[in-house]
Amino acid sequence: MNRALLALGLLAIAVAPASAAVTSSTTHGATHTELDPLMSATDYIAGMIGTELPGDLGWHPANPASGDPLHPDGLPAFTDGVGALSGVTGLLNDFPGVGVPTKLVDYALGGPTDVTGINIFSGNGGADGRVFSTTVVKYSTDGGANYSTLGYFQSDPSGTINSGQWGSTLVEIYDDSNPVLLSGVTNLEFDFYAVDNTGGQMRDAWDGVNPFTSIDDGLSAAFVSPLIYEIDVVPEPASLSLLALGGLAMLRRRR
Ligand SMILES: [Ca+2]
Ligand SMILES: [Ca+2]
Ligand SMILES: [Ca+2]
Q1: Which terminus in the chain has less CB density within 10 A, N or C?
Q2: Residues in a beta bridge with 149
Q3: What domains, with CATH codes, occur in the chain?
């Protein structure tokens, strides 16, 4: 082992930030079904019906789930492993108000679980601002008694306009310095916010400073909500899985 390299490695470890570098990356599909093959039907919350938390604003009146949360276009759609079943699948309620989420849903993982990635799929056959997503993810390691905030994840920078070029969005949340995003987690809470102003323009949900980013995006608060197609809590983020597959293929070719 080269001692200089070893020393460099130790130095890198020594200066690495103590806090996890949680980050996210966004992929858009041209159509509302293009990213469907990346959805998982075997992730940690597959088939679960989440618990709507206090403050949850139900569903958009056009979504049949507004009268029946267990309708296939409602809570089951978040975890059924497939994309849109109809034009209103996963359509959240509009006009949540400034700075408050429109939907708050919690999943109990059935025991301490190591999570390496969270993938949030959204989209709209209409290919407008509803394809974006903004989510605050919280987690508990004590069965839901206490929650910490993992982060605020806005799919695209405020001001981004979807003029029909995108029908779907995947936000992959992971830790860029650790293969494990969360260890020993028992519950995951997803707070979904409005994303758009009817002009196809991504906005945050605040007037003035966004308390999560400490930034004022200079735009009035979003009031149009997304269609959430799927939430995957997985061993590996989708694109990292693809990278790993590519790496394996390269290794095989070398042999
Ligand atoms: Ca789904
Ligand atoms: Ca799933
Ligand atoms: Ca704003």
Answers
A1: C
A2: 138
A3: 19-254 (2.60.120.260)
